[in-house]
């Protein structure tokens, strides 16, 4: 793909990908169908088609498709996903699928501890096999797991997200189970083995007929040193190694970054020779979730602690400066878009592997305003940043905006909104209302200027939700 071609996307709580055209460039968006009935799903797909989107990324719920984690397929779950895929295709919209967006069947968590056990490798691979078999004739782009680094840290170190594992003195609140010093590394290791097993299965059994691609999704800040002191500059590299290299290095080179092996020591699982060969090269693209720049301060002295977790092992401190966080704390700054820097790093560090930006978007208070000018400014800045990176040679295949609709967010429920469309939760019909950003993005994709009359109408219309 040349630097003049790009995919743009929109995201939602169940991530989705929308592929669109812009002035001879190909763009993708990510969104999601999270609210309401099958009829609303049809209406939402029609909204996407009206915007000119050509692709949509969504997550399959393992529990919906195979409730017990293995064995019998739920026919209603299978029908739901077939209906969605077929409806997308009917409108000329290409489906992109994520197999696991944090949740797994409760049966597997109860039986053997979920991702803490290597038993999940076989179960996940069998689940992926079902998806490839049932949907692969119409789906070419697969992501095995979403934001695996955040899932691992949040779920098994600080306990902020399910399954809420942590141990003293770590954790945002007391956890009933967990070991913050070891569990994140065990889970990450099992994720890598499960991901690579699914990729190898696809290549062996389906690639020759389906011709698809399989990738893995990571979260990333754009790290900047707090000062020009060498220690802070070196800490930036450790952020890259611990957030991205933790998963990308094994998949590209067959082993963890050297700094992780030094700092974590015996708590970091080792790949056997066979496992290293299985993991190395088991990726067709790397997917990235990114929202903001953050400053980094060296904390090497923390390595003297006898009890350590992932954060202490990294020997860095993440600092939100005034530059990183606007006064209201509910919007990301638009003055220093960092995607270009991350893409340049990935290009240099990992041989310019194909990249899909699966999430990127502006957070605002979910107070119902449709005049989201800050979101428009954010998208303009970051899309321009990505295009600049591509013209510098970055192998970007897709860009996703979070999100198509306002949705239930993982950390603050309905407190914030990322959507191009507002969803009125006080209306039993869950009516969707396009925001200014939706009109801007549609015009942008179609190569048109925003109409002043449209903007003025939106400025005068404000909705409020009691939730």
UniProtKB/TrEMBL annotation:
Native source species: Solanum pennellii
Gene3D superfamilies noted in UniProt: Glycosidases
InterPro entries noted in UniProt: GH (IPR017853), Glyco_hydro_1 (IPR001360)
Annotated signal peptide: 1-24
SUPFAM superfamilies: (Trans)glycosidases
Name the record gives this protein: Beta-glucosidase 11-like isoform X2
Key words of the record: Signal
Pfam families according to UniProt: Glyco_hydro_1
Entry similarity comment: Belongs to the glycosyl hydrolase 1 family.
UniProt keyword annotation of Signal present: yes
């Amino acid at each position: 793909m040349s630097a003049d071609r790009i995919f743009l996307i929109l995201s939602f709580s169940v991530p989705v990908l929308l592929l669109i055209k812009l002035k001879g460039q190909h763009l993708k968006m990510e969104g999601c169908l999270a609210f309401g009935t099958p009829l609303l799903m049809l209406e939402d797909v029609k909204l996407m088609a009206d915007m000119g989107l050509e692709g949509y990324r969504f997550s399959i719920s393992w529990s919906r498709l195979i409730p017990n984690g293995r064995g019998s397929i739920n026919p209603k779950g299978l029908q739901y996903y077939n209906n969605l895929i077929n409806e997308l295709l009917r409108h000329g919209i290409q489906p992109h699928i994520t197999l696991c967006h944090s949740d797994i069947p409760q049966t597997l968590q109860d039986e053997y501890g979920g991702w803490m056990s290597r038993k999940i490798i076989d179960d996940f691979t069998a689940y992926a096999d079902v998806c490839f078999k049932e949907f692969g004739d119409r789906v070419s782009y697969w992501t095995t797991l979403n934001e695996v680094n955040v899932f691992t840290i949040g779920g098994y170190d600080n306990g902020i997200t399910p399954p809420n594992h942590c141990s003293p003195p770590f954790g945002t609140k007391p956890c009933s189970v967990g070991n913050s010093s070891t569990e994140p590394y065990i889970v990450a290791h099992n994720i890598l083995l499960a991901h690579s097993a699914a990729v190898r299965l696809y290549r062996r059994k389906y690639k020759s007929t389906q011709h698809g691609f399989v990738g893995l999704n990571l979260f990333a800040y754009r790290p900047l040193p707090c000062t020009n002191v060498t220690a802070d500059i070196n800490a930036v590299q450790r952020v890259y190694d611990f957030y991205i290299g933790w998963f990308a290095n094994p998949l590209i080179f067959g082993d963890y970054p050297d700094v992780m092996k030094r700092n974590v020591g015996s708590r970091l699982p080792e790949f056997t020779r066979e496992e290293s060969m299985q993991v190395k090269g088991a990726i067709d693209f790397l997917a990235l979730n990114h929202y903001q720049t953050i400053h980094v301060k060296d904390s090497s002295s923390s390595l003297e602690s006898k009890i350590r977790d992932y954060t202490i092992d990294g020997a860095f401190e993440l600092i939100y400066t005034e530059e990183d966080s606007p006064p209201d704390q509910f919007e990301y700054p638009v003055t220093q878009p960092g995607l270009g820097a991350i893409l340049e790093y990935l290009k240099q560090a990992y041989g310019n592997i194909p990249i899909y930006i699966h999430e990127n978007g502006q957070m605002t208070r979910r107070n119902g305003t449709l005049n989201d000018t800050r979101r428009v400014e954010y998208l303009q800045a970051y899309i321009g940043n990505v295009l600049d990176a591509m013209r510098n040679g970055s192998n970007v295949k897709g860009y996703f905006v979070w999100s198509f609709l306002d949705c239930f967010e993982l950390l603050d429920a309905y407190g914030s909104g990322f959507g191009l469309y507002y969803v009125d939760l006080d209306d039993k019909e869950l009516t969707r209302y396009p925001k200014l950003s939706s009109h801007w993005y549609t015009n942008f994709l179609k190569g048109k200027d925003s109409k002043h009359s449209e903007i003025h109408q939106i400025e005068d219309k404000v909705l409020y939700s009691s939730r």
